[in-house]
From TrEMBL:
Classification via Gene3D superfamilies: 1.20.120.1630
GO biological process, one term: methylation
Organism: Povalibacter uvarum
Role this protein plays: Catalyzes the methylation of methanethiol (MeSH) to yield dimethylsulphide (DMS).
Main location: membrane
Name under which the protein is recorded: methanethiol S-methyltransferase
Topology relative to the membrane: Multi-pass membrane protein
GO cellular component term of the entry, any: endomembrane system
Keyword Oxidoreductase: no
Domain of life from the UniProt record: Bacteria
């Protein structure tokens, strides 16, 4: 593939991701999209559960396997290295599009906060989760995370420089602020149905497992810097006192 071809492919993958991102806000939040996480059931419970768990498993497998260094090593013999991250982003987006299309609402309201300040606060928290998520992508490197930096550097004839170990802003408070954004999004539901609960429980479990794998890769990539960071900074729950928050320097990777 030519340089311009790879660049345009990267931009296309990013555009697909943006569409999925915006759709997900409505899909999970229960407004404005043709398909929704919550709703009245259209199939027997067992069938609906099997379909939903299958969709979540497909996303989890795609997202985890394609992120592993060994897979990338093999995969970049087939796809150009500069397009590897964009392909990952595209595959993740396609897995989510399948989930948006084939997800089966199950009904069964577990809680529903009545109209008023409580409901408004939960909707506000949901919006905050999305903002936190978006903000956090920029703290490490938004354009690297979604493949644009790679295709741009390739297009302009420069070699790829992976992001360095960094602990800016919220990364000094917890090691995984982006995943906190997801957890807020999944659980901040003014109305919680059975399908939403299945989604929230399974995605929470997935995040907790994914952290183990991600941190193993981060220790391989960043060595003692990440080991020390892991010792000094909580994984997901911020410490309520500030004296010992972190001692990790915000500087480049050392192996
Ligand atoms: C989807 S992001 C999630 C980051 C983090 N787990 C979080 O929840 O904020 C995953 C990417 O962030 C990178 N990453 C995570 N922590 C990092 C850090 N402190 N410095 C540099 N890169 C980091 C990983 O290498 C991975 O490519």
């Amino acid at each position: 593939m030519s340089r311009i071809g790879i660049f345009l492919y990267g931009v296309l993958c990013y555009a697909v991701f943006l569409g999925v991102f915006v759709y997900a806000i409505g899909f999970i939040g229960g407004f404005a999209t043709p398909t929704l996480l919550d709703g009245a059931p259209t199939r027997p419970l067992g069938q609906a559960l099997a379909i939903n768990l299958g969709l979540l498993a497909a996303f989890a497998l795609q997202h985890s396997i394609m992120a592993r260094p060994a897979f990338k090593h093999w995969w970049t013999r087939i796809v150009p290295e500069a397009a590897e991250r964009s392909t990952y982003v595209l595959a993740s987006s396609l897995a989510l599009i399948a989930l948006f299309i084939f997800w089966e609402p199950i009904g069964g309201v577990l809680w529903s906060v009545p109209e008023g300040s409580g409901r408004t606060a939960i909707i506000g928290l949901y919006a905050f989760g999305w903002l936190l998520l978006l903000y956090t992508t920029f703290l490490i490197d938004h354009f690297d995370l979604f493949g644009l930096a790679q295709v741009w550097r390739h297009f302009t004839g420069r070699s790829y420089r992976p992001p360095q170990f960094r602990t800016p802003s919220l990364y000094r408070v917890v090691r995984h602020p982006l995943y906190i954004g997801w957890l807020i999004i999944f659980w901040a539901a003014p109305t919680m149905t059975v399908a939403h609960l299945v989604f929230a429980v399974m995605t929470t479990a997935y995040i907790l497992i994914a952290i183990r794998f991600e941190e193993r890769d981060l220790v391989d990539a960043f060595g003692n810097d990440y080991v020390a960071y892991r010792r000094s900074t909580p994984m997901l729950m911020p410490r309520l006192w500030s004296a010992r928050r972190t001692t990790t320097p915000s500087r480049g990777a050392q192996r």
